[in-house]
Design goal:
The chain is mainly β. Helices cover about 0% and strands about 70% of the residues. It has a four-stranded antiparallel beta sheet, with no helix packed on it.
Length: about 100
């Protein structure tokens, strides 16, 4: 896994979206985007992700999560299980736009 961690202060009570384009080569198991919300300094963890199985050319993916009011850390990045390669380009972490009905 390759992740970046940030404080959740500016995102508490909101939905966040981690998006990026992934390319994989010869993965033996699974690869994909990860978005984790840690509360109480790692005691409780919410793990969200999108998984890519098999080889894929550059394809856009996104994962969304609600950041609770008591969240401390947000981690986001890519993960690869087993052998193979994964690449990420154009990663973004943003607040999800709210759609009014």
């Amino acid at each position: 896994a390759l992740v970046q961690a940030i404080f959740a202060d500016d995102y508490r009570g909101r939905d966040v979206v981690f998006a990026g384009e992934i390319s994989t080569e010869r993965p033996t198991e699974q690869a994909g985007l990860r978005l984790e919300v840690l509360k109480h300094w790692r005691q409780v963890r919410e793990d969200h992700g999108v998984t890519v199985a098999g080889r894929c050319d550059w394809t856009g993916y996104e994962v969304r999560a609600r950041v609770p009011e008591d969240a401390d850390i947000i981690r986001f990045g890519i993960a690869l299980t087993g052998a193979g390669r994964i690449a990420l380009r154009n990663p973004t972490l943003s607040v999800a736009s709210e759609v009014s009905v």
